[in-house]
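Our preliminary data section would be incomplete without showing what the modeling component actually yields. Below, a chain of 177 amino acids is followed by its predicted structure, encoded as tokens that our downstream tools consume directly.
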Amino acid sequence: MKHSLIAAAAVLAFGVGAASAATSSETAPAAMASASAAMPKPDMTSTANAKGGDAKSGMSRQDHDAQKARIDGDYKAARKECDSQKGNAKDVCKADAKGKHEVAKAQLEEQYKPSPSHEAKVKKEQAKADYAVAKEKCEDMKGDAKSACKKDAKAQYESANGNAKATKAEAKKSAHS
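Predicted structure:
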């Protein structure tokens, strides 16, 4: 279990730096890559269950709390990095950091208590994060380009949000069958 926590921390640490560098250089929402940092699924061995872990997730409450504290720490560090930037780049950075934080929290809950609802929440948070960053990037544009950028960002958000809702509805439907 310790190995998987270390691996998760390394993935998030690398993902936060790489994704924030990528998002600060892009200008159009269509070119925007997914900003979520991939967190490995917890180890499903019986050792976690012997330590008081949830039988479904294999993650103990202590592991969950430690991961949550790490996510909060990563967010604070990412926000602090934004302070060195100026103007709209700072706003983009802050939106990116907040979005990654919300996505990481949703992913953690989905790992801790897997459910269709939590899976849909991850997708919804990712859509919100991508939309917030895209809107901030549009602020660097002027006139028709800015308007088109915002329209494209909204369309992408609505599509992704619709997919999240469909995932949740489909899971409920199959659960009742």
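The longest helix spans residues 143-176. Confidence is low (pLDDT under 50) at residues 1-55. Preliminary results of this kind motivate Aim 1 of the renewal.
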